[in-house]
Specification:
mainly alpha; three-stranded antiparallel sheet; 20 helices; 3 strands; binds carboxymethyldethia coenzyme *A
Protein backbone atom coordinates (compact mmCIF):
# COMPACT_ATOMS: atom_id res chain seq x y z
CA UNK A 1 0.00 0.00 0.00
CA UNK A 2 1.38 3.49 -0.84
CA UNK A 3 2.20 5.78 2.09
CA UNK A 4 -0.60 8.19 1.28
CA UNK A 5 -3.14 5.38 1.07
CA UNK A 6 -1.89 3.96 4.35
CA UNK A 7 -1.96 7.46 5.90
CA UNK A 8 -5.57 7.98 4.82
CA UNK A 9 -6.53 4.52 6.05
CA UNK A 10 -5.09 5.29 9.52
CA UNK A 11 -6.60 8.78 9.55
CA UNK A 12 -10.03 7.35 8.73
CA UNK A 13 -9.79 4.99 11.71
CA UNK A 14 -8.96 7.94 14.02
CA UNK A 15 -11.75 10.08 12.57
CA UNK A 16 -14.26 7.23 12.85
CA UNK A 17 -13.30 6.68 16.50
CA UNK A 18 -13.87 10.38 17.17
CA UNK A 19 -17.26 10.23 15.45
CA UNK A 20 -18.19 7.15 17.50
CA UNK A 21 -17.33 9.10 20.69
CA UNK A 22 -19.32 12.12 19.49
CA UNK A 23 -22.33 9.93 18.75
CA UNK A 24 -22.05 8.13 22.08
CA UNK A 25 -21.91 11.48 23.89
CA UNK A 26 -25.07 12.64 22.21
CA UNK A 27 -26.18 12.09 18.67
CA UNK A 28 -29.21 14.33 19.24
CA UNK A 29 -27.37 17.22 20.91
CA UNK A 30 -28.41 20.53 19.32
CA UNK A 31 -25.64 22.40 17.49
CA UNK A 32 -27.36 25.51 16.21
CA UNK A 33 -30.81 26.91 15.73
CA UNK A 34 -31.96 28.02 12.31
CA UNK A 35 -34.11 31.10 11.96
CA UNK A 36 -36.20 32.24 9.02
CA UNK A 37 -33.64 34.89 8.05
CA UNK A 38 -31.07 32.14 7.63
CA UNK A 39 -33.18 29.89 5.40
CA UNK A 40 -33.75 32.87 3.10
CA UNK A 41 -30.20 34.18 3.63
CA UNK A 42 -27.81 31.62 2.21
CA UNK A 43 -27.73 29.56 5.45
CA UNK A 44 -25.14 31.99 6.85
CA UNK A 45 -24.00 31.00 10.33
CA UNK A 46 -25.84 27.66 10.28
CA UNK A 47 -23.51 24.97 11.62
CA UNK A 48 -24.61 22.00 9.55
CA UNK A 49 -21.53 20.25 8.16
CA UNK A 50 -18.56 18.27 9.44
CA UNK A 51 -15.32 18.78 7.50
CA UNK A 52 -12.05 17.38 8.81
CA UNK A 53 -9.57 18.71 6.26
CA UNK A 54 -9.40 22.31 7.47
CA UNK A 55 -11.04 24.88 9.73
CA UNK A 56 -11.28 28.69 9.53
CA UNK A 57 -11.10 30.41 12.91
CA UNK A 58 -12.36 34.04 12.92
CA UNK A 59 -9.26 35.17 14.83
CA UNK A 60 -6.47 32.87 13.72
CA UNK A 61 -7.55 32.05 10.16
CA UNK A 62 -7.03 28.84 8.24
CA UNK A 63 -5.99 25.73 10.16
CA UNK A 64 -5.08 22.47 8.41
CA UNK A 65 -5.09 19.66 10.94
CA UNK A 66 -3.15 21.03 13.91
CA UNK A 67 -1.27 23.60 11.84
CA UNK A 68 -1.96 27.33 11.45
CA UNK A 69 -1.06 29.17 8.23
CA UNK A 70 2.33 30.26 9.67
CA UNK A 71 3.19 26.64 10.27
CA UNK A 72 2.44 25.29 6.82
CA UNK A 73 3.02 28.18 4.39
CA UNK A 74 6.65 27.13 3.72
CA UNK A 75 5.68 23.60 2.60
CA UNK A 76 5.22 22.11 -0.89
CA UNK A 77 1.66 21.65 -2.26
CA UNK A 78 2.26 17.87 -2.33
CA UNK A 79 2.96 17.98 1.43
CA UNK A 80 -0.20 20.02 1.91
CA UNK A 81 -2.34 17.48 0.04
CA UNK A 82 -0.83 14.77 2.23
CA UNK A 83 -1.70 16.83 5.31
CA UNK A 84 -5.25 17.57 4.15
CA UNK A 85 -6.01 13.93 3.52
CA UNK A 86 -4.01 12.12 6.21
CA UNK A 87 -3.85 14.77 8.98
CA UNK A 88 -0.04 14.54 8.96
CA UNK A 89 2.87 15.82 6.89
CA UNK A 90 4.73 13.07 5.00
CA UNK A 91 8.22 11.87 5.92
CA UNK A 92 10.83 12.57 3.22
CA UNK A 93 10.55 9.04 1.83
CA UNK A 94 6.75 9.13 1.61
CA UNK A 95 6.89 12.53 -0.07
CA UNK A 96 9.32 11.24 -2.73
CA UNK A 97 7.11 8.19 -3.31
CA UNK A 98 4.02 10.40 -3.65
CA UNK A 99 5.75 12.81 -6.06
CA UNK A 100 6.97 9.88 -8.12
CA UNK A 101 3.44 8.47 -8.27
CA UNK A 102 2.11 11.84 -9.49
CA UNK A 103 4.82 11.99 -12.17
CA UNK A 104 3.79 8.57 -13.50
CA UNK A 105 0.22 9.79 -13.92
CA UNK A 106 0.94 13.26 -15.35
CA UNK A 107 0.23 12.65 -19.06
CA UNK A 108 -2.92 14.45 -20.24
CA UNK A 109 -4.77 12.44 -22.94
CA UNK A 110 -4.61 13.92 -26.45
CA UNK A 111 -8.42 14.12 -26.70
CA UNK A 112 -8.45 16.72 -23.89
CA UNK A 113 -6.27 19.03 -25.97
CA UNK A 114 -8.50 18.40 -28.98
CA UNK A 115 -11.56 19.43 -26.94
CA UNK A 116 -9.85 22.57 -25.61
CA UNK A 117 -8.39 23.64 -28.97
CA UNK A 118 -11.83 23.38 -30.58
CA UNK A 119 -13.48 25.86 -28.20
CA UNK A 120 -14.07 29.47 -29.25
CA UNK A 121 -10.87 31.56 -28.87
CA UNK A 122 -12.39 33.75 -26.16
CA UNK A 123 -13.62 30.88 -23.94
CA UNK A 124 -12.92 31.71 -20.29
CA UNK A 125 -9.90 29.78 -18.88
CA UNK A 126 -12.07 28.53 -16.00
CA UNK A 127 -14.49 26.98 -18.51
CA UNK A 128 -11.49 25.29 -20.12
CA UNK A 129 -10.24 23.95 -16.80
CA UNK A 130 -13.63 22.61 -15.75
CA UNK A 131 -14.28 21.11 -19.18
CA UNK A 132 -10.77 19.64 -19.40
CA UNK A 133 -11.37 17.69 -16.20
CA UNK A 134 -14.91 16.70 -17.13
CA UNK A 135 -13.74 15.46 -20.53
CA UNK A 136 -11.58 12.85 -18.73
CA UNK A 137 -14.55 11.44 -16.80
CA UNK A 138 -14.49 8.24 -18.84
CA UNK A 139 -11.13 7.52 -17.12
CA UNK A 140 -12.75 7.34 -13.67
CA UNK A 141 -11.50 4.31 -11.76
CA UNK A 142 -14.30 4.76 -9.23
CA UNK A 143 -16.97 4.60 -11.92
CA UNK A 144 -15.41 1.52 -13.54
CA UNK A 145 -15.11 -0.35 -10.24
CA UNK A 146 -18.55 0.77 -9.04
CA UNK A 147 -20.10 -0.71 -12.15
CA UNK A 148 -18.37 -4.01 -11.35
CA UNK A 149 -19.81 -3.85 -7.82
CA UNK A 150 -17.60 -2.74 -4.91
CA UNK A 151 -18.20 -2.62 -1.18
CA UNK A 152 -19.10 0.77 0.27
CA UNK A 153 -16.14 0.62 2.69
CA UNK A 154 -13.80 0.61 -0.33
CA UNK A 155 -15.29 3.60 -2.16
CA UNK A 156 -12.60 5.94 -0.82
CA UNK A 157 -9.80 3.82 -2.33
CA UNK A 158 -11.10 4.33 -5.87
CA UNK A 159 -11.93 7.97 -5.13
CA UNK A 160 -8.28 8.32 -4.12
CA UNK A 161 -7.19 6.78 -7.45
CA UNK A 162 -9.28 9.36 -9.29
CA UNK A 163 -7.90 12.14 -7.08
CA UNK A 164 -4.29 11.16 -7.83
CA UNK A 165 -4.99 10.97 -11.57
CA UNK A 166 -6.65 14.40 -11.56
CA UNK A 167 -4.05 16.08 -9.34
CA UNK A 168 -1.17 14.65 -11.37
CA UNK A 169 -2.55 16.08 -14.62
CA UNK A 170 -3.50 19.50 -13.23
CA UNK A 171 -0.19 21.35 -13.77
CA UNK A 172 -0.02 20.19 -17.43
CA UNK A 173 -3.70 20.93 -17.97
CA UNK A 174 -3.57 24.41 -16.38
CA UNK A 175 -0.36 25.37 -18.15
CA UNK A 176 -1.69 24.05 -21.46
CA UNK A 177 -4.81 26.20 -21.04
CA UNK A 178 -2.59 29.25 -20.53
CA UNK A 179 -0.57 28.52 -23.64
CA UNK A 180 -3.61 27.78 -25.82
CA UNK A 181 -5.59 30.75 -24.55
CA UNK A 182 -2.88 33.41 -24.15
CA UNK A 183 0.18 32.10 -25.98
CA UNK A 184 1.01 30.55 -29.34
CA UNK A 185 -0.63 27.23 -28.44
CA UNK A 186 2.64 25.28 -28.36
CA UNK A 187 2.70 23.15 -25.21
CA UNK A 188 5.80 22.67 -23.03
CA UNK A 189 6.48 19.09 -21.90
CA UNK A 190 6.13 18.01 -18.26
CA UNK A 191 9.50 17.53 -16.54
CA UNK A 192 9.48 14.69 -14.02
CA UNK A 193 12.55 16.12 -12.26
CA UNK A 194 10.47 19.07 -11.06
CA UNK A 195 7.93 19.17 -8.25
CA UNK A 196 4.20 19.87 -8.76
CA UNK A 197 4.31 23.70 -8.61
CA UNK A 198 7.76 23.82 -10.26
CA UNK A 199 6.29 21.95 -13.20
CA UNK A 200 3.38 24.35 -13.49
CA UNK A 201 5.80 27.32 -13.63
CA UNK A 202 8.01 25.48 -16.15
CA UNK A 203 5.08 24.62 -18.44
CA UNK A 204 3.54 28.11 -18.27
CA UNK A 205 6.75 29.28 -19.95
CA UNK A 206 6.62 32.86 -18.68
CA UNK A 207 9.88 34.28 -19.96
CA UNK A 208 11.50 36.00 -17.01
CA UNK A 209 13.30 33.02 -15.54
CA UNK A 210 13.15 34.58 -12.07
CA UNK A 211 13.44 31.94 -9.35
CA UNK A 212 11.13 33.96 -7.11
CA UNK A 213 8.19 33.30 -9.45
CA UNK A 214 8.50 29.57 -8.74
CA UNK A 215 8.61 30.36 -5.01
CA UNK A 216 5.53 32.56 -5.38
CA UNK A 217 3.64 29.84 -7.25
CA UNK A 218 4.47 27.31 -4.55
CA UNK A 219 3.19 29.71 -1.88
CA UNK A 220 0.09 30.55 -3.93
CA UNK A 221 -0.79 26.87 -4.43
CA UNK A 222 -0.30 26.18 -0.73
CA UNK A 223 -2.32 29.15 0.57
CA UNK A 224 -5.43 28.56 -1.58
CA UNK A 225 -5.68 24.79 -1.00
CA UNK A 226 -8.80 24.56 1.20
CA UNK A 227 -11.09 26.76 3.32
CA UNK A 228 -13.27 24.29 5.26
CA UNK A 229 -16.49 22.73 3.94
CA UNK A 230 -19.20 25.38 3.56
CA UNK A 231 -17.76 27.66 0.87
CA UNK A 232 -19.49 27.53 -2.53
CA UNK A 233 -16.94 25.44 -4.41
CA UNK A 234 -16.06 22.89 -1.71
CA UNK A 235 -19.69 22.41 -0.75
CA UNK A 236 -20.77 22.01 -4.39
CA UNK A 237 -18.07 19.45 -5.01
CA UNK A 238 -19.08 17.49 -1.89
CA UNK A 239 -22.79 17.56 -2.73
CA UNK A 240 -22.12 16.21 -6.23
CA UNK A 241 -19.80 13.49 -4.96
CA UNK A 242 -22.30 12.54 -2.23
CA UNK A 243 -24.57 11.29 -5.04
CA UNK A 244 -21.65 8.97 -5.96
CA UNK A 245 -21.01 11.01 -9.07
CA UNK A 246 -17.28 10.37 -9.44
CA UNK A 247 -14.55 12.88 -8.67
CA UNK A 248 -14.29 14.15 -12.27
CA UNK A 249 -17.91 15.31 -12.05
CA UNK A 250 -17.43 16.63 -8.52
CA UNK A 251 -14.19 18.55 -9.20
CA UNK A 252 -15.58 20.07 -12.38
CA UNK A 253 -18.72 21.17 -10.47
CA UNK A 254 -16.67 22.71 -7.66
CA UNK A 255 -14.61 24.67 -10.18
CA UNK A 256 -17.80 26.00 -11.77
CA UNK A 257 -18.69 27.50 -8.38
CA UNK A 258 -15.20 28.91 -7.92
CA UNK A 259 -15.56 30.74 -11.26
CA UNK A 260 -18.10 33.20 -9.81
CA UNK A 261 -17.24 36.85 -9.00
CA UNK A 262 -18.38 36.47 -5.38
CA UNK A 263 -15.96 33.59 -4.87
CA UNK A 264 -12.77 32.81 -6.81
CA UNK A 265 -12.98 35.68 -9.27
CA UNK A 266 -12.66 38.39 -6.54
CA UNK A 267 -8.85 38.38 -6.76
CA UNK A 268 -8.84 39.87 -10.23
CA UNK A 269 -11.04 42.77 -9.06
CA UNK A 270 -8.50 43.61 -6.37
CA UNK A 271 -5.72 43.83 -8.89
CA UNK A 272 -7.81 46.02 -11.19
CA UNK A 273 -8.43 48.36 -8.23
CA UNK A 274 -4.70 48.61 -7.55
CA UNK A 275 -3.79 49.14 -11.22
CA UNK A 276 -6.32 51.94 -11.41
CA UNK A 277 -4.71 53.67 -8.42
CA UNK A 278 -1.32 53.25 -10.08
CA UNK A 279 -2.61 54.80 -13.29
CA UNK A 280 -4.43 57.71 -11.62
CA UNK A 281 -2.19 58.49 -8.63
CA UNK A 282 1.02 56.41 -9.12
CA UNK A 283 2.80 54.34 -6.48
CA UNK A 284 4.11 57.60 -4.97
CA UNK A 285 0.59 58.44 -3.77
CA UNK A 286 0.61 60.05 -0.32
CA UNK A 287 -1.34 58.59 2.59
CA UNK A 288 -3.72 61.58 2.56
CA UNK A 289 -4.41 61.25 -1.18
CA UNK A 290 -5.02 57.53 -0.80
CA UNK A 291 -7.43 58.05 2.11
CA UNK A 292 -9.40 60.56 0.03
CA UNK A 293 -9.47 58.13 -2.91
CA UNK A 294 -10.72 55.25 -0.74
CA UNK A 295 -13.43 57.44 0.81
CA UNK A 296 -14.56 58.53 -2.66
CA UNK A 297 -14.92 54.87 -3.69
CA UNK A 298 -16.93 54.10 -0.56
CA UNK A 299 -19.12 57.21 -0.95
CA UNK A 300 -19.92 56.14 -4.50
CA UNK A 301 -21.47 52.97 -3.00
CA UNK A 302 -18.70 50.53 -3.97
CA UNK A 303 -16.80 48.12 -1.76
CA UNK A 304 -13.04 48.17 -1.28
CA UNK A 305 -11.98 44.90 -2.91
CA UNK A 306 -9.77 42.63 -0.85
CA UNK A 307 -11.15 43.90 2.48
CA UNK A 308 -13.74 42.20 4.67
CA UNK A 309 -14.65 38.55 5.15
CA UNK A 310 -17.70 36.48 6.01
CA UNK A 311 -15.85 34.50 8.71
CA UNK A 312 -12.51 36.18 9.51
CA UNK A 313 -12.32 39.04 12.01
CA UNK A 314 -8.59 39.82 11.71
CA UNK A 315 -6.08 40.33 8.91
CA UNK A 316 -6.11 37.08 6.94
CA UNK A 317 -2.86 35.24 7.80
CA UNK A 318 -2.67 34.27 4.11
CA UNK A 319 -2.49 38.01 3.29
CA UNK A 320 0.31 38.33 5.85
CA UNK A 321 2.22 35.45 4.22
CA UNK A 322 1.93 37.10 0.78
CA UNK A 323 2.94 40.47 2.23
CA UNK A 324 6.07 38.92 3.74
CA UNK A 325 6.87 37.34 0.38
CA UNK A 326 6.45 40.73 -1.34
CA UNK A 327 8.72 42.48 1.20
CA UNK A 328 11.41 39.88 0.59
CA UNK A 329 11.14 39.54 -3.17
CA UNK A 330 9.59 42.59 -4.84
CA UNK A 331 9.38 45.50 -2.43
CA UNK A 332 10.00 47.95 -5.30
CA UNK A 333 7.08 46.72 -7.40
CA UNK A 334 4.44 49.42 -7.96
CA UNK A 335 1.53 47.07 -7.31
CA UNK A 336 3.10 45.76 -4.11
CA UNK A 337 3.79 49.29 -2.85
CA UNK A 338 0.17 50.35 -3.47
CA UNK A 339 -1.24 47.17 -1.90
CA UNK A 340 0.94 47.85 1.16
CA UNK A 341 -0.12 51.50 1.38
CA UNK A 342 -3.78 50.45 1.14
CA UNK A 343 -3.18 48.12 4.09
CA UNK A 344 -1.94 51.06 6.14
CA UNK A 345 -5.02 53.24 5.47
CA UNK A 346 -8.06 51.07 4.63
CA UNK A 347 -8.72 49.24 7.97
CA UNK A 348 -9.04 52.51 9.94
CA UNK A 349 -11.35 53.98 7.33
CA UNK A 350 -13.59 50.88 7.22
CA UNK A 351 -13.74 50.67 11.04
CA UNK A 352 -15.39 54.07 11.13
CA UNK A 353 -17.45 53.80 7.97
CA UNK A 354 -21.15 52.81 7.95
CA UNK A 355 -21.32 53.37 11.73
CA UNK A 356 -19.09 50.41 12.40
CA UNK A 357 -21.33 48.03 10.46
CA UNK A 358 -18.48 46.48 8.46
CA UNK A 359 -17.78 43.33 10.44
CA UNK A 360 -14.18 42.90 9.33
CA UNK A 361 -12.20 45.97 8.18
CA UNK A 362 -9.04 43.94 7.53
CA UNK A 363 -7.57 42.53 4.29
CA UNK A 364 -8.31 39.04 2.98
CA UNK A 365 -6.01 36.91 0.81
CA UNK A 366 -7.15 38.57 -2.42
CA UNK A 367 -5.80 41.99 -1.37
CA UNK A 368 -2.26 40.93 -2.21
CA UNK A 369 -2.14 37.79 -4.38
CA UNK A 370 -2.89 39.38 -7.80
CA UNK A 371 -0.33 42.17 -7.27
CA UNK A 372 2.42 39.61 -6.82
CA UNK A 373 1.41 37.50 -9.85
CA UNK A 374 1.25 40.67 -11.93
CA UNK A 375 4.73 41.76 -10.82
CA UNK A 376 6.22 38.43 -11.89
CA UNK A 377 4.81 38.67 -15.41
CA UNK A 378 1.52 36.80 -15.15
CA UNK A 379 -0.63 39.68 -16.32
CA UNK A 380 -3.73 37.94 -17.71
CA UNK A 381 -6.35 38.52 -14.97
CA UNK A 382 -8.71 35.96 -16.47
CA UNK A 383 -6.20 33.26 -15.67
CA UNK A 384 -5.84 33.95 -11.93
CA UNK A 385 -8.86 31.89 -10.91
CA UNK A 386 -7.37 28.89 -12.75
CA UNK A 387 -4.40 29.01 -10.36
CA UNK A 388 -6.83 29.31 -7.44
CA UNK A 389 -8.65 26.28 -8.91
CA UNK A 390 -5.49 24.17 -9.31
CA UNK A 391 -4.81 24.71 -5.64
CA UNK A 392 -8.40 24.30 -4.42
CA UNK A 393 -8.79 20.95 -6.21
CA UNK A 394 -6.54 19.55 -3.45
CA UNK A 395 -9.21 20.50 -0.93
CA UNK A 396 -12.07 19.10 -3.03
CA UNK A 397 -10.25 15.79 -3.44
CA UNK A 398 -9.25 15.45 0.22
CA UNK A 399 -12.74 16.36 1.47
CA UNK A 400 -14.40 13.83 -0.82
CA UNK A 401 -11.95 11.01 -0.08
CA UNK A 402 -12.47 11.43 3.67
CA UNK A 403 -16.25 11.73 3.33
CA UNK A 404 -16.36 8.52 1.27
CA UNK A 405 -14.06 6.79 3.77
CA UNK A 406 -16.39 7.75 6.60
CA UNK A 407 -19.38 6.43 4.70
CA UNK A 408 -21.14 9.80 4.65
CA UNK A 409 -24.56 9.63 2.99
CA UNK A 410 -26.03 11.66 0.16
CA UNK A 411 -26.51 15.32 1.18
CA UNK A 412 -30.13 16.34 1.08
CA UNK A 413 -31.32 19.23 3.27
CA UNK A 414 -35.02 19.97 3.35
CA UNK A 415 -36.43 23.03 1.62
CA UNK A 416 -39.81 24.65 2.24
CA UNK A 417 -42.14 26.98 0.36
CA UNK A 418 -43.32 30.43 1.48
CA UNK A 419 -46.75 28.87 1.93
CA UNK A 420 -45.31 26.22 4.25
CA UNK A 421 -43.53 28.91 6.30
CA UNK A 422 -46.70 31.01 6.53
CA UNK A 423 -48.87 28.06 7.48
CA UNK A 424 -46.52 26.30 9.88
CA UNK A 425 -44.62 29.12 11.58
CA UNK A 426 -46.21 32.04 13.35
CA UNK A 427 -45.07 34.71 10.94
CA UNK A 428 -48.32 36.07 9.53
N1 LIG B 1 -15.89 47.78 1.51
C1 LIG B 1 -17.04 48.45 1.75
N2 LIG B 1 -18.09 47.95 2.42
C2 LIG B 1 -17.94 46.72 2.93
C3 LIG B 1 -16.76 45.99 2.77
C4 LIG B 1 -15.71 46.54 2.02
N3 LIG B 1 -14.57 45.89 1.77
N4 LIG B 1 -16.91 44.80 3.41
C5 LIG B 1 -18.15 44.79 3.93
N5 LIG B 1 -18.77 45.97 3.63
C6 LIG B 1 -20.15 46.32 3.92
C7 LIG B 1 -21.09 45.34 3.24
O1 LIG B 1 -21.25 45.65 1.86
C8 LIG B 1 -22.34 45.48 4.06
O2 LIG B 1 -23.00 46.66 3.65
P1 LIG B 1 -24.61 46.66 3.44
O3 LIG B 1 -25.19 46.16 4.71
O4 LIG B 1 -24.89 48.08 3.12
O5 LIG B 1 -24.88 45.73 2.29
C9 LIG B 1 -21.78 45.75 5.46
O6 LIG B 1 -20.41 46.17 5.29
C10 LIG B 1 -21.78 44.51 6.34
O7 LIG B 1 -21.14 43.44 5.65
P2 LIG B 1 -20.23 42.38 6.44
O8 LIG B 1 -21.13 41.62 7.37
O9 LIG B 1 -19.06 43.06 7.03
O10 LIG B 1 -19.66 41.48 5.29
P3 LIG B 1 -20.34 40.21 4.58
O11 LIG B 1 -20.01 39.01 5.40
O12 LIG B 1 -21.75 40.47 4.23
O13 LIG B 1 -19.49 40.17 3.22
C11 LIG B 1 -17.54 40.21 1.84
C12 LIG B 1 -18.17 39.71 3.16
C13 LIG B 1 -16.16 39.57 1.68
C14 LIG B 1 -18.44 39.78 0.66
C15 LIG B 1 -17.43 41.74 1.92
O14 LIG B 1 -16.59 42.08 2.99
C16 LIG B 1 -16.95 42.37 0.63
O15 LIG B 1 -17.75 42.63 -0.27
N6 LIG B 1 -15.59 42.62 0.52
C17 LIG B 1 -15.02 43.16 -0.68
C18 LIG B 1 -14.89 42.09 -1.78
C19 LIG B 1 -13.84 41.04 -1.45
O16 LIG B 1 -12.76 41.34 -0.96
N7 LIG B 1 -14.16 39.77 -1.71
C20 LIG B 1 -13.23 38.68 -1.47
C21 LIG B 1 -13.68 37.76 -0.37
C22 LIG B 1 -12.63 36.70 -0.16
C23 LIG B 1 -13.20 35.41 0.38
O17 LIG B 1 -14.42 35.31 0.62
O18 LIG B 1 -12.40 34.48 0.56
Amino acid sequence: MSSIKEGIHDHLIELQEEIDCIFTAGRNTKVSEVNIGQIYGGMRGVVALACNTSYVDPYSGLHIGDYTTDNFSHKLPEEIFFLLSTGKFPEAESLAEFQNDLNQRAQVPQYVWDVLRNLPRDTHPMTMLSLGILSMENESVFKREYQKGIEKRNYWKYTLEDALNILAKLPSLAAGIYRIRFGNGVLIAHDSKLDWSGNLVHMLGIPDGDKSFADLMRLYLVLHCDHEGGNVSAFTSRVVNSALSDLYYAVSAGLNGLAGPLHGLANQECLQFILKIDEQLSDQVSEEELKAYVLDVLDSGKVIPGYGHAVLRVTDPRFTAFMKFGEENCSNSSCFKIAKKLFSVVPDILKNYKEGKIANPYPNVDAMSGSLLHHFGLKQFDYYTVLFGVSRVMGFCAQNILAQGLGQPIIRPKSVTNKWVLENLAVK
